[in-house]
């Protein structure tokens, strides 16, 4: 087997392992499945062209996530869309670059209300909500990362979404 064939086989395995996760992350950012698919494909094209430069294969997942997020940001900026990103401290960063001032103002009002509501939550519950809603992680991944039972994670996510809907409905309408 040649090095090129080995490289292709390894890359196919990388694609199988990470493509769904990258799609979920990018979809959370774009809210457009077709655009998310395009961005994931663009990410893997970039990865394939740089595959020789990867030194530590253990970190390829993190590298792909960063590449996918940056590619999504570029697409969103080009198309004048919103970008929502969680910050390290649990706050939400909203980059609004929409052409409609009214839509941008309405969206910012909603995001400020969301941020205000989740700021009062317990830090672990807020982190679970952000990891699920904005990072696109699965319950099992959050469970492993935070060392909390998967059932607890699912319950927190369900209750957080329900509570947030009720609170926002009261506040905005």
What does this structure look like?
With about 170 residues, this protein is mostly helical. The protein folds into 2 domains: about 1-80, RNA polymerase sigma factor, region 2, helix turn helix motif (Rna Polymerase Sigma Factor, Chain: A, Orthogonal Bundle), CATH 1.10.1740.10; about 80-173, Winged helix-like DNA-binding domain superfamily/Winged helix DNA-binding domain (Arc Repressor Mutant, subunit A). The protein is built from 7 helices and 2 strands. Strands 1-2 form a two-stranded antiparallel sheet. The radius of gyration is 18 Å and the shape is globular.
Main traits of this protein?
173 residues, 2 domains, 7 helices, Rna Polymerase Sigma Factor, Chain: A, disordered N terminus, mainly alpha
Which strand order does the major sheet show? 1-2
Strand content: 5-15%
Secondary structure: helix percent: over 70%
CATH level 1 name of the largest domain: Mainly Alpha
| CATH architecture group name of the largest domain | Orthogonal Bundle
Distance between the termini: 64 Å
Number of strands: 2
What does the largest sheet look like?
Answer: 2 strands, antiparallel
Order of helices and strands: HHHEEHHHH
Q: Would you tell me which CATH topology of the largest domain applies? A: Arc Repressor Mutant, subunit A
What is the average of the pLDDT values?
76
Described by the principal axes of the CA atoms, the overall outline is globular
- Count of alpha/pi helices: 7
The secondary-structure class comes to: mainly alpha
Radius of gyration computed on alpha carbons: 18 Å
């Amino acid at each position: 087997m040649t090095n090129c064939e080995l490289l292709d086989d390894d890359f196919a395995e990388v694609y199988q392992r990470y493509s769904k996760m990258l799609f979920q992350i990018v979809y959370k950012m774009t809210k457009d499945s077709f655009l998310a698919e395009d961005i994931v494909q663009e990410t893997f094209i970039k990865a394939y062209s740089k595959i020789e430069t990867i030194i530590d294969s253990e970190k390829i997942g993190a590298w792909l996530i960063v590449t996918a997020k940056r590619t999504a940001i570029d697409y969103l900026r080009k198309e004048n869309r919103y970008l929502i990103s969680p910050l390290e401290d649990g706050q939400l960063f909203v980059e609004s670059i929409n052409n409609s001032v009214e839509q941008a103002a309405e969206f910012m009002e909603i995001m400020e209300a969301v941020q205000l509501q989740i700021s009062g939550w317990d830090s672990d519950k807020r982190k679970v909500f952000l990891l699920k809603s904005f990072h696109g992680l699965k319950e099992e991944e959050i469970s492993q990362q935070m060392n909390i039972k998967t059932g607890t994670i699912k319950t927190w996510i369900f209750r957080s979404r329900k509570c947030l809907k009720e609170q926002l409905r009261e506040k905005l309408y």
